[in-house]
Specification:
alpha+beta, Ribosomal Protein S8, Chain: A, domain 1, 36% helix, 3 helices
Length: 115
C-alpha cells in the first residue's frame, strides 16, 4: 500500500511564527482525520540563510508531539537521507518515497513527519 503523503507549506504568505505554528497544529489534526501517513512541512530556513525562527519552533512543537506520542517521528530535511535510520525505516515500508525530490538533498527548509 502506498504512503498517504500530505504537503503543507507553513511559510506561504510569510506568516508570523505564531501563525505558522497554528497552521502546523491545524495540518496535523487534519492529517489525522484524513488518515495520512506522512506530512511534509515546508517551513523555510530563514531569509538570512542562517536559520529561521519558524523552523526552530516547528521542531520544538514536533518534539513535544513525539514525546507525547501523537506523532511517531519527525525528520529534519538535512537528515532526510538513506543513511538516516528513521528515513531508512520509512523507505523500507514505503519504497515509493525514494522518488521524493528532497531525499538526500539536505533541504533545511523542510521537515518530514510520520503520524
Amino acid at each position: 500500500m502506498a504512503a498517504r503523503v500530505k504537503l503543507v507549506n507553513l511559510e506561504e504568505g510569510h506568516p508570523t511564527v505564531n501563525q505558522g505554528l497554528f497552521r502546523l497544529e491545524q495540518a496535523l489534526m487534519s492529517a489525522r482525520t484524513e488518515a495520512v501517513d506522512i506530512v511534509k512541512f515546508i517551513h523555510g530556513y530563514g531569509s538570512s540563510g542562517v536559520g529561521g525562527r519558524l523552523r526552530d519552533e516547528v521542531w520544538k512543537v514536533l518534539d513535544h508531539h513525539r514525546r507525547a506520542r501523537s506523532v511517531r517521528a519527525f525528520i529534519p530535511g538535512e537528515q532526510f537521507r538513506i543513511s538516516d535510520e528513521t528515513t531508512w525505516a520509512l523507505l523500507k515500508k514505503w519504497p515509493e518515497l525514494k522518488l521524493d525530490r528532497d531525499l538526500g538533498r539536505k533541504n533545511r527548509g523542510i521537515t518530514v513527519v510520520v503520524l
